[in-house]
TrEMBL record:
Source lineage: Bacteria, Bacillati, Actinomycetota, Actinomycetes, Kitasatosporales
EC number: 1.14.13.59
Protein name: L-lysine N6-monooxygenase MbtG
Record flagged with keyword Flavoprotein: yes
Coiled-coil positions: none
Family per record: Belongs to the lysine N(6)-hydroxylase/L-ornithine N(5)-oxygenase family.
InterPro entries (UniProt xref): FAD/NAD-bd_sf, Lys/Orn_oxygenase
UniProt GO MF annotations: monooxygenase activity
Cofactor requirement: FAD
Catalytic activity reported: L-lysine + NADPH + O2 = N(6)-hydroxy-L-lysine + NADP(+) + H2O
Region (Disordered): 448-469
Length: 469
């Protein structure tokens, strides 16, 4: 028998990206949980503007939504292949890292088959009702055109926020997006505007991470030799490869996450600024493909009309004339400045976590924050709330909003299943999904030393003889 509208659910998920999709998939077989997940989009999609042909995800296919905690789940990537009669082709393809488009198709398959997911539902507000000891979630049901169709309210004891990230544009570059008639796009929308971009005489890509590299490579492949007219700039001192050594990857394990969470706030903040190459560097294969493409164009003499300049920041930017853009550049190491005129710009400047305050404004009196006014998050991914809320058994879990407390693995797909299982174990109050006690060969901190007391020396009839030798 289905619950009445006033019956509190066990869990409401807000946002259906890969992380809450993982949570929904692992919650699906748990009959004791009543769950529902809302997303304002009409259907699942995952970075559609960056599903460039040949671009791969940066984690192995085993880092799907469920496998690393429940390989027998019906929602594994391998079961997706089986449902499409593609297991043997995948087997012979010998691909450890799958294409982005294939990962997106896998997530769509899961999303289309989980009954707890409700797309076209925009969550408007979240409040705590102290009289009923539950959260109230107000939402608007949207029609196919995205217009409001009906209003609704759901009551729940627990919430999982998976509202994702949003494209980030640094302040010096904001004047560019206010220049109508000139192609200036964020990399998140690259494929949507690719055809228009290719008509531009000169194109500049800003950003030295993976997205910038993939966009530059795709543009390079699409432009004829001698008429590339491309410029790629970035703030980092080099177009640096991502740290991908075996032991380096152990920073994306539960062991490191636990270690990081136990550090002091000031140490965590300092570490985050030093670990950019663990998650913001460029895949070595992408760098090799760019070099191969450039090298191929030198075989008959001459150099491609493409400029790659790291160590550069944009001081200011804006439109000049009618169809031109001008970037005022500063080389960080040389302390020199110059101007770059271009016809189109792709801003591969990354993403930022969506502020939780927009959605949780009604809970602000209950939220507990750190010294920088960020939400506190415990080891089980629960927001720190006033005891008047948590004492009732109500909790708010976050997914991909806790890098300041849980470290570089926060946005990594490889930790999705483990975090989802951790949340479900916390929510059910039992080991619903058994998790390993150890996941890395590296020991990230010193254990509390114990006094080393030598054992008592046992008397021996040989002692006098030995002492005399």
């Amino acid at each position: 028998m289905s619950p009445t509208p006033d019956t509190p659910r066990d869990l409401v998920g807000i946002g259906i990206g890969p992380f809450n999709l993982s949570l929904a998939a692992l919650a699906h077989p748990l009959a004791e949980l009543d769950t529902v997940f809302y997303d304002q989009r009409p259907a699942f999609d995952w970075h559609p503007g960056l599903l460039i042909d040949g671009a791969t995800i940066q984690v192995p296919f085993l880092a799907d939504l469920v496998t690393l905690v429940d390989p027998a789940s019906p929602w594994t990537f391998l079961n997706h292949l089986k449902s499409r009669d593609r297991l043997f082709p995948f087997y012979f393809a010998e691909r450890f890292h799958i294409q982005r488009a294939e990962y997106d198709a896998y997530c769509r398959w899961v999303a289309e088959n989980l009954p707890a997911l409700h797309f076209g539902h925009q969550v408007d507000a979240v409040r705590f009702n102290p009289e009923r000891d539950v959260f109230e979630v107000d939402f608007t049901q949207l029609d196919t055109d995205g217009e409001a169709e009906a209003l609704g309210r759901t009551y729940t004891r627990n919430i999982a926020l998976g509202i994702g990230t949003e494209p980030y544009i640094p302040d010096p570059l904001r004047p560019l997006v206010e220049a109508p008639g000139v192609p200036v796009i964020h990399a998140a929308d690259y494929l949507t505007h690719r055809a228009d971009l290719l008509t531009a005489e000169h194109i500049t890509v800003v950003g030295s991470g993976q997205s910038g590299a993939e966009v530059f490579l795709d543009l390079l492949r699409a432009r004829p030799h001698g008429r590339e007219r491309l410029h790629w700039i970035g703030r980092t001192e080099a177009f640096a490869p991502m740290e991908y050594s075996k032991l380096g990857l152990e920073h994306f394990t539960p062991d490191y996450t636990r270690y990081f969470h136990a550090l002091t706030e000031s140490v965590r903040d300092r570490l985050i600024t030093t670990q950019w190459q663990l998650h913001k560097g460029i895949d070595a294969d992408t760098l090799a493909a760019i070099h191969d493409e450039l090298y191929r164009r030198t075989l008959h003499g001459g150099w491609p009309d493409a400029v790659l300049t790291p160590g550069v920041r944009v001081r200011t930017a804006g439109r000049i004339a009618t169809t031109k853009l001008e970037l005022h550049l500063e080389h960080i190491e040389q302390n020199t400045r110059s101007r770059l005129t271009t016809d189109a710009v792709v801003l591969a400047t990354g993403y930022r976590e969506r502020p939780l305050d927009r959605l949780l404004a009604g809970l602000d009196p209950y939220l507990r924050r750190d010294s920088r006014d960020r939400p506190r998050v415990d080891e089980h991914y629960r927001l720190a709330l006033d005891p008047s809320v948590t004492g009732t058994g109500c909790n708010i879990y976050v997914q991909n909003a806790e890098r300041h407390t849980h470290g570089v693995g926060t946005p990594d797909l490889g930790l999705a299943a483990w975090r989802s299982a951790t949340i479900l174990n916390s929510l059910t109050g039992k080991e619903t999904y058994p998790l390993p006690a150890r996941t890395a060969f590296t020991t990230f901190g010193l254990e509390t030393p114990r006094p080393q007391i030598p054992p008592a020396r046992r008397p021996s009839t040989l002692t006098p003889l030995l002492d005399g030798i």
